[in-house]
Amino acid sequence: MAIARLRPRCPLFEPCGDRVLMTRFRDLIPIANHLPTGPLNGITDVPGVRVGHVTRNEGEGKLVPGRGPIRTGVTAVLPHSGNVFREKAPAAVYTINGYGKATGFEQIRDLGVIETPICLTNTLNVGKVWDAVVSYSIRENPDIAIRTSNVSPVVGECNDNFLNDGQGRHISEADVLRAIDGASTSHVAEGCVGAGTGTLCYGFKGGIGTASRLVIDGAYTVAALLQTNFGQRHELQMLGAPIGQHVAEDNFDSPPGSVMVVIATDAPLDARQLERMAKRAAFGLGRTGTICHSGSGDFVIAYSTCNRRVHGATELVSEARAINEEAQFAGGLLIDQLFRAVVECVEESVYNALIAAQTTVGRDGNTLYALPHEQLQDLMRHYRRMK
Exposed e or buried b for every residue in 237-251, given b needs 16+ CB within 10 A? Predict the structure, then answer.
């Protein structure tokens, strides 16, 4: 069998808005993962978790700093169905590479809880999104900074300047509030939506990807949502197949970028255990081929919807429970199932971001091409990853 070479598809930009894109990795390539997926195979499989996107696709042609073209957005992850400031979720953060502009991480490291929606955007919009999350938090909690403490927004970013007018900082407070207020528990739109509108993945168009796993006989769910903007094309692996070795002659080898990883679970975990889970995200990224380059901002946020702490009080919303890390289950430790779930979710989220994304033309005609589906299937057959 002749080995296919990956060539760009969809030469024209096709805006995908905020709608759900039906094509996912499993629609093309079978996965023999160890753990079953949730019903939606996404972060919204964790009960109460909501996701909202606002996508900005405006203008074309030559870059006019401050005016466009615009290829950016914001994605909001609401950790649970309650008031997150009043019911703080146990959380942890982990930095694989620190070349990024994340906010709110030090308070999470110190206190072990998260108290705002998690918002993802592009690099120079971090300050504007942070300010908008403050406005949202005050709207929902009018006593902030008056009769109670301040609030610490959690905002992450990836650099989308290859396609987008970064200097324009085109995300407004209204955009952020619309993403938060419009967040839902349904299927999560993937690819070039929200914070993934202008980002790449292994030199192809990437963006938002998500996946979930059921653990401990379906008792709990572990899920991930990624904003991808990392990897060089020659590195790309899928299910162990060296896909990146079959790039086209006109290969675009992108500079190292960044990735934001959000991990959610309804398993009863404390901040220390969540940090252990967050560290396993690096193994999921490694399965896709990246070495997490120096100069890349690779950040992980992990939280649980259980054992939420009431603001200003010592009691918990529900009785505190915790996974016993020494307990055995199905021939292994309970905690190991959670670790495996993280690795599988992160890996598949990368694939879903690549498969859902569409070719996008941005400023100055800069183009990120979608991963070609048919050629990918040919390569996966060649490497016996599918029939």
Answer: bbbebebbebbeeee
Contacts of 331 (CB under 8 A, 6+ apart): none
Please list, in sequence order, all residues whose beta carbon lies within 8 angstroms of the beta carbon of residue 22, skipping any fewer than 6 positions away.
none
User: Which residues are catalytically annotated?
Assistant: 258, 296, 298
Distance CA 372, CA 10 (A): 9
From residue 288, alpha-carbon distances to 107, 211, 215, 239 in Å are 31, 15, 22, 8
pTM equals: 0.93
Q: Find, among 263, 256, 120, the residue nearest to 201 by Cα.
A: 256
Give the domains, in start order, of the chain with CATH numbers: 25-382 (3.60.70.12)
Cα angle for residues 302, 304, 309 (degrees, 5° grid): 115
pLDDT tens, position by position, 333-378: 788 999 999 999 999 999 999 999 999 999 999 999 999 999 999 9
The runs of H, that is alpha helices, within the chain are: 25-28, 105-111, 126-140, 173-181, 271-279, 281-287, 334-356, 373-382
Length of the chain counted residue by residue = 387
From 285, 191, 253, 242, select the one nearest 376 (Cα to Cα): 242
Other Cβ atoms less than 10 A from the Cβ of 338: the count is: 26
